[in-house]
Amino acid sequence: MHVESPTIPVGAIWYPQDHEDPNRLKRAHLYGINSVPNETVLVQQAKSRFTLHKPARTYHLSLEGKGPTVWTDTDKKAVAMQVELAQEAELDFFLINVYVWSEDGGIKTELDAPLDVIVRQLREKHIKFALNFCFHKPRSVIPVPLGFKEERRHISATKETFEAIVDFLVPFLELPNYLTLGSWGHPFVSFYGLDPRTLDRDERNPFRWITEKMERTINKRPGLLCYAVAKTPLDALRFQELGFFGTMTYSDLPSFTGEIYHDILGLEDLQEYKPQPAFLQSYLRQLYRQTQTWWNIAQIQTHSNKKTNHIPTSVIGWDASYRAHELAGMREATEALSNGASFEDLYPLFPIVVEANPMNFLKMLDAIFLYLQEFIRWEYQFVLINAWNEIAEGSSMIPYYSRTYSRRGERFKDSHNLVTDYLYAVRDFKRSLPERIRDSWKDVVQFSE
Fold first, then answer.
1. C-alpha distances in angstroms, 434 versus 1, 66, 225, 270?
2. Where does the pLDDT of residue 449 fall: very low under 50, low under 70, confident under 90, or very high at 90 and above?
3. Which domains does the chain have, with CATH numbers?
4. What pTM was computed for the model?
5. Inter-CA distances, 25 with 227, 232, 260, Å
């Protein structure tokens, strides 16, 4: 029997870049701040936080290092160049972060101007997309003072907000390049920032709100594949009990719980070493820990007689210190902890994932592939990368030059080597999928060339 060589769709999260969004600026004005920095500039001016930390980068929207180095996603040309880079990596889809809520009986949004530009460019190039509705608005106070908590960022998970989300979503579902999964072509949609502990099956059930609103809006059952971002195995099970088709993670690598490592950076041999919260976290060690978490989620769902539809996210790296106040470092973070701050209060200064490189990233892609083959039904398999352009969190596929101080004064200079490895790592991984899937299925289906 001849069977078409299968593959798995590979996509990335796209964080719309627009530091001039009016609603975002309005929130900044509440703190006496007149502007939000362009993150493409922010990363170029980044300062080191500890020895050997060299975070400054110059991103380029071309493979030759001659493209724009400063841009926003409201610029059609800049977005078109990013789409061309995505085609070079052979990405199948993007999951675009959107910010929608209900207020005063109407729909409120942030970063919707770049969303329109991105979707238009993706449609022209026949690249699929889906929407990821976030319940935390993008930060407006940047750089972030240590321990500062910005108010008015959280979007309440109310029935009115979910109905506003459906009204916002429906026109996108009509586009030919909206992402669908499964043999019946169910549209994919996801939600980030929901806390399942505040929800229940009856009175506060987002899935029921979405279903009822979709039935009233288009007079048929929605057929949506609703995914929620889960932080823990228990959260994954809770979301499934609410009716969500599946769960996924958003940022697998860093741990924000302040876990203690004795062996980070080879410090296990130092007798005088005193364990500290994990400011610096090893990429491979975190991958090992997260792999255990994925399998725990699958086992919990299996033992509960639930379908296993949890999708891990492959993370390029993590260093959000670009968004932190430039004078903050390890000493200030340690003092904050001793004064009662929690480890989560250190964001965006810490944690920082070290040893993030294309080779280790490929190892994470491999681990996710094995997990998908073991637990997820083939028609619902997909690989999601965090991220396409989270440049201010150290997780981006876009080519860049590393930046260092010149020896003459305080001027920056760019390295000579343009880092394009992440684009090609994804392309090589994707091209290997048909053969790897055939190998994993060779005892089930007879393939012929």
1. 17, 34, 25, 47
2. very low
3. 10-441 (3.20.20.80)
4. 0.91
5. 30, 33, 38
